[in-house]
Amino acid sequence: MNNYEMTFYSTDGKVFQADVYSVLEAFDVTCHARGHAIKKLLMPGQRGAKGEMQDLDEALVSVSRAIDMARARLPDGGTLTGKTEVEPKPEPEPEPKMVTWRLCVRMDPGELKCQWFLVGWHPSGNIPEYWYPIEAHTQPIETVQQLPEGQEP
Hints:
By secondary structure, the protein is of the alpha+beta class. It is built from four helices and five strands. Helix 2 packs antiparallel against helix 3 (about 50-70). The chain is rod-shaped.
């Protein structure tokens, strides 16, 4: 019997001997770093060569190496869980609310004989009767709200 061999009892009561290497093979552990860590974790400090803390420290180093090796096999950005780490996309800036101002001319049929016209700015959708748009200017609503009273866009 070697340092790694143990006695096992099957579920049907049979007794058999197996060592760490048989267990690793039974579980298809092919990574040597994982196998080394498992060996250290199964019998820390019980094989006579090293103490428990040294075996646990070496197991930790082996697991860390196994993680590095597994990450090296993943495509860029992958994780060991198989999920891809994606930077969250920043929330898009909301589109500013816009208002369109119309430069309008007033053409009241009764005033046309006088040959003078009134000109003024009006927001779209709120153009008074007899005022006709001749030019448009669009800007964010926030800008309009900041204009001093009476100032045109």
